[in-house]
Amino acid sequence: MDELRDEYPSGWRILVQNESVGYILDALMDALPGSEFTKSELADKSGVSRQSVYSHLDLLLVLGVLEPVEDSSPERYRVNADNELLELLHQVNGVVNERLTD
């Protein structure tokens, strides 16, 4: 069973398999909708290395939580305010915080 989970990870496992992805998503949840970041700025805001941002940028773009800002130099990325995943993460965050304070 573990081999199958490794070969075909669930969406949840993809999100939590690397601690840096969690830190980046957490930072994006705190950002104002439409906020823009360079890779270095996102690393600073997230508390992860620039290498981690570089390593996970493709995943963040595929998930749609970030979108590239056209004609930006250095390259900038915008928080996608309409992203369903970020909305769901906010809901999960609210439920967890509510349960922990009960």
List the helices and strands and how they pair.
Blueprint: H1 2-7, H2 11-16, H3 19-30, E1 36-37, H4 39-46, H5 50-63, E2 66-68, E3 77-79, H6 84-101
Antiparallel strand pairs: 1-3, 2-3
Helix pairs in contact: 3-4, 4-5
Protein name: ArsR family transcriptional regulator
Organism: Natronomonas aquatica
Question: Would you give an account of this structure?
Answer:
This is ArsR family transcriptional regulator. The chain has 102 residues and is mainly α. The protein has a single domain (2-101), classed as Arc Repressor Mutant, subunit A. It has helices at 2-7, 11-16, 19-30, 39-46, 50-63, 84-101; strands at 36-37, 66-68, 77-79. Helix 3 crosses helix 4 (39-46) and helix 4 (39-46) packs across helix 5 (50-63). The longest helix is centred in the C-terminal third of the chain and has 18 residues, at 84-101. The mean pLDDT is 93.
Globular, elongated, flat, extended or rod-shaped: what is the shape? globular
Give helix % range. Answer: 55-70%
CATH-defined fold name? Arc Repressor Mutant, subunit A
The ordered H/E elements are: HHHEHHEEH
Number of helices: 6
Q: Numbering strands along the chain, what is their spatial order in the largest sheet?
A: 1-3-2
Q: State the major sheet.
A: 3 strands, antiparallel
Q: Please give the radius of gyration in angstroms.
A: 15 Å
How many domains comprise the coordinates? Answer: 1
* Termini Cα gap: 36 Å
Structural class: mainly alpha
Q: What is the beta-strand fraction?
A: 5-15%
Tell me the CATH architecture.
Orthogonal Bundle
Rounded mean pLDDT score: 93
The tally of beta strands, per DSSP, is 3
In the CATH hierarchy, what is the class?
A: Mainly Alpha
Unreliable residue runs? none
CATH superfamily: Winged helix-like DNA-binding domain superfamily/Winged helix DNA-binding domain
Protein name: ArsR family transcriptional regulator
InterPro entries: WH-like_DNA-bd_sf, WH_DNA-bd_sf
Organism: Natronomonas aquatica
